[in-house]
Amino acid sequence: MSSRIPIIHRRALLSGAAVLVAVGLPRIAIAEQADPLPSWNDTAPKQAIRTFVESVTRDGGHDFVPPAQRIAVFDNDGTLWGEQPMYFQLAFAIDRIKALAASHPEWKETQPYKAALEDDTKALAASGNKGIMEILAATHAGVTTEAFADTVAEWLQTARHPRFQQPYDKLVYRPQLELLAYLRANGFKTFIVSGGGVEFMRVFAERAYGIPPEQVVGSSIFTTLQIDAEGKPQLIKQPKIEFVDDGPGKPVGINRFIGRRPILAFGNSDGDQQMLEWTSAGDAPRLAALLHHTDAEREWAYDRASHVGKLDKALEEARLRGWTVVDMKRDWKRVFAFEPKGAL
Amino acid sequence: MSSRIPIIHRRALLSGAAVLVAVGLPRIAIAEQADPLPSWNDTAPKQAIRTFVESVTRDGGHDFVPPAQRIAVFDNDGTLWGEQPMYFQLAFAIDRIKALAASHPEWKETQPYKAALEDDTKALAASGNKGIMEILAATHAGVTTEAFADTVAEWLQTARHPRFQQPYDKLVYRPQLELLAYLRANGFKTFIVSGGGVEFMRVFAERAYGIPPEQVVGSSIFTTLQIDAEGKPQLIKQPKIEFVDDGPGKPVGINRFIGRRPILAFGNSDGDQQMLEWTSAGDAPRLAALLHHTDAEREWAYDRASHVGKLDKALEEARLRGWTVVDMKRDWKRVFAFEPKGAL
């Protein structure tokens, strides 16, 4: 038998920090736990988050919630990544219209395609729901689910955000990545519940956020099963909306896909209001939070008057109900992982 | 510092068996691994399952599949629990009709309610889709999602299966519980993908199978968000079918809810055929399995001619494609956890 000194070190990700744990011996040297949320300033929201997580994970405590019930839901656009100057999925759709235009010469003279080809977002908006549905059909349907995912993956590799000149999936918020990791290290299961297209988000959610496809809830179009020429089954995306996971659709989507009420919900717009209400209406301790975009210098500043990510009624309700409002400028030490060099 | 001999034992659930692992030292005493599938006879299906699991988990091996992609899907009725003499959810619906009949005196003279009240399954079947929809509306809709779950939970506590005189959720198959645990111990994520109602199954799936609500995919009716008299949001179940998770609906449901192709699929009827085809059509190593009910003594024997769980075309395809067919009589040492005492 060895006479080696019996200190066995095991790295354990506890509270988001690597901690040295002495196994099977009196704990003689526990390193001070590092801050699991280093990109957050020590302001009220960070305190509220830490207090909440500590209270629901304190074994035997009054507010203890078993791990299986620690469901956390996050909106995506404007909550986990940026959404200006337009939803990134719309940027993808416009780029797809451009890529497909050579096979559709008539698009140069036909709305809403003409607007997309000319980056005329005003004309595109004027085309209304009918126009958006046509763009959606041309760019998201008529292909297999796998071909669509490949197209999104390729776009994420090649497209650049107009302001920051970064791939779109680099515009994820570093403080939120820390929060997701902190929650998971404390036994939470993290979900996306977003108005965005579920098959669009699933392409990058696992890599960008550590959220696997089966924990992404979003809007969808129908798919149908078809057998191809070689006898292989294929799922084909159809130009028909199946589910809109926005506003009152969010509690419905949570019920349908997750099947239990979250104890933490994080959004940034009026489209998240019902999700926060639904989460807050449960019996157990709950945390409802909104990200308020207040930082035109590092990101953007917008709320009540914005066409994208409008935050108006939900902000009122947050004040009435005591929801946590994260002020990006005040509460976040950093916004992105990269150092912004874009024109401001 | 202690001079204790540095053997640190840690219990680890590996392959379903508690194994002593010497941490940080040469492994000097690994106990022989217990059989993770003790209710399975040592026939071909058990060998196929073990070979498959070992091959996809062998780090560096040719067939290795990363844990995140180890998705296993199981049908429920007839695959994880019984389905005779009628789908258990239909037994629930009939019991609900009886429980609600006092408030609906007209049901005594009106089909399909009369058939349900008189246990006349022939007349019930004759009422067709329209009749089934009426029963569904009367027993599954018009209530909050939470009230419905409470009703199912109460029914599971009080109702008894007519043959075995056991609560319905005791009619789960012990070999399958072992298989689910074995898969999870090997990094698989286990899902139900069933034609049954998702909100019905979620009530017992976690307790009975260790499968949490967010990993249950099933058929559904619509829900809508309403604000009650106290200002609280409620989800109300509506008498309108949203999704039928059966046949070609299973690959569609897998794509919608899970978002990636399983590597293992287990069913028992023609309603599972497309799920097995979809699973088998992937690139990675796959296991597709069917449970063949061949045991009239311990359970039931039925296949091509059965109205419940008809197994005909899928059985042919299993033979053509080399899918694993589990013959209950031959391959299972035990069927249930309880010792059957029911009339045979």
Task: Give keywords.
homodimer; 344 residues; alpha/beta; Rossmann fold; two-stranded antiparallel ribbon; 12 helices; 9 strands; 18% strand; disordered N terminus
How is this structure best described in words?
Chains A, B: Its EC number is 3.1.3.3. Chains A, B: Pfam families: HAD. 2 copies of one chain form a homodimer. By secondary structure, chain A is of the alpha/beta class. Chain A has helices spanning 44-57, 88-100, 113-117, 121-126, 128-140, 145-158, 174-185, 198-209, 249-257, 273-280, 313-321, 328-331, and strands at 9-14, 17-22, 71-74, 189-197, 216-227, 233-243, 264-267, 287-292, 324-327. Chain A contains 12 helices and 9 strands. In chain A, the strands form 2 sheets. In chain A, strands 6-5-4-3-7-8-9 form a 7-stranded mixed sheet, sandwiched between helices. Chain A has a two-stranded antiparallel ribbon with strand order 1-2. The termini of chain A are far apart. Mean pLDDT of chain A is 90; it is low at 1-32. The interface between A and B is large, with 46 and 47 residues.
SSE series of chain A: EEHEHHHHHHEHEEHEHEHEH
Query: Gyration radius of chain A, to the nearest Å?
Result: 22 Å
CATH homologous superfamily of the largest domain in chain A?
A: HAD superfamily/HAD-like
**What is the count of distinct domains of chain A?**
3
* Low-confidence runs of at least 5 consecutive residues of chain A: 1-32
CATH architecture call of the largest domain in chain A = 3-Layer(aba) Sandwich
Strands of chain A, count: 9
| Main sheet strand line-up of chain A | 6-5-4-3-7-8-9
Strand content of chain A: 15-25%
Oligomer: homodimer
